[in-house]
Amino acid sequence: MEYTHARQGGQPSREGTPGNFSGLVMMDALLADGDGESATVRVNNVFFTPGGRTYWHGAAPDAFMNHTAVSLGVTRWLEEVSAGDYEAAFKYE
Q: Do residues 30 and 5 touch, judged by C-beta distance below 8 A?
């Protein structure tokens, strides 16, 4: 299996796919074993602006977050956390 450094030639960061992310989320491909949907292994650096998130985790409403995502095979997105549940997670009593 051959791996390529996926961000070559000064490629710009790309915005997270609408429908999988909310808010501003930027991604840098770090490593892949193929192009596009043919890749079965992907490593991405994912940067979330305040309030940006995937369906389950992400940045707090007032903070940035960064993580390295490693995907093996096809990513299967499950049910999105509602905006109300996300907001409730940051209410402290």
A: yes
Residue in this structure with the two tokens 């292994």, named with its chain if needed: 41
Please, are residues 67 and 40 in contact by the beta-carbon 8 Å criterion?
no
Residue 86 one-letter amino acid: Y
* pLDDT tens digit sequence for 41-88: 888 899 999 989 887 788 888 999 999 989 888 777 778 888 888 888
For residue 25, count other CB atoms closer than 10 A to its CB. 22
Query: Contact 26/11 with Cβ under 8 angstroms?
Result: no
What gap in Å lies between CA 48 and CA 30, rounded to an integer?
Answer: 17
Q: Which residues pair with 71 in a beta bridge?
A: 42
**Domains in the chain with CATH codes:** 14-88 (2.60.120.10)
Q: What is the pTM of this model?
A: 0.76
